[in-house]
Amino acid sequence: MRKLVFPLVLLASAFVQPLTARADAIDDFVLTGNGLDITFSLPASPPGNEMTCPPFSPSCLPGSETAFYLSTLVTTNGVTSVESLSFPTFRFNGGLSLGSNPGRLFGPQLFLPDASNPTFLTGTFDLDAFPPKGGVDDYTLTITPETTATTPEPSTLALFGTGIVGLIEFARTRKRRV
């Protein structure tokens, strides 16, 4: 019986389909302008929490219809703090609102398809502050995907382990015959 079980398990493991290893993709954000260097990282597809904002609400950019919100660690000129971020959708535009400095920034919509299921776009975006802080209203936001090391899939490791066990069993069986 033992001689039959091991080959059957080995054969069955060959037909196990490898599962795709999925690590959450992370996007790095760098906002520069008016002497500020602001960095933070967010999931490339954060959980959507779409909220409707009344026009001119202090927590939303003026004229926004909907937005999604989240809080994260933000580093501003080397000082790290927890900030509330808002990514609104406008009738004709988008932008970003940080809890403190520089405040409300207008520009293109930074995610697709909508605030309930957002995925950030990557690239460099020009944003304008309103009202301008210190006479400067031009900011640049760069969103880049974070590079991650590849991780072996669990099924690959299981198949590798089964092969090692098979070689050990083969060697033991051969040693007994001699």
TrEMBL record:
Q: Which residues form the Ice-binding protein C-terminal domain?
A: 150-175
Q: Lineage, please?
A: Bacteria, Pseudomonadati, Acidobacteriota, Terriglobia, Terriglobales
Superkingdom of this protein's organism: Bacteria
Q: Which NCBIfam families match?
A: PEP_CTERM (TIGR02595)
Q: What is this protein called?
A: Ice-binding protein C-terminal domain-containing protein
Keywords for this entry? Signal
Range of residues in the leader sequence: 1-23
An example of a Pfam family matching this protein is PEP-CTERM
Instruction: Cite the InterPro entries for this sequence.
Output: Ice-binding_C (IPR013424)
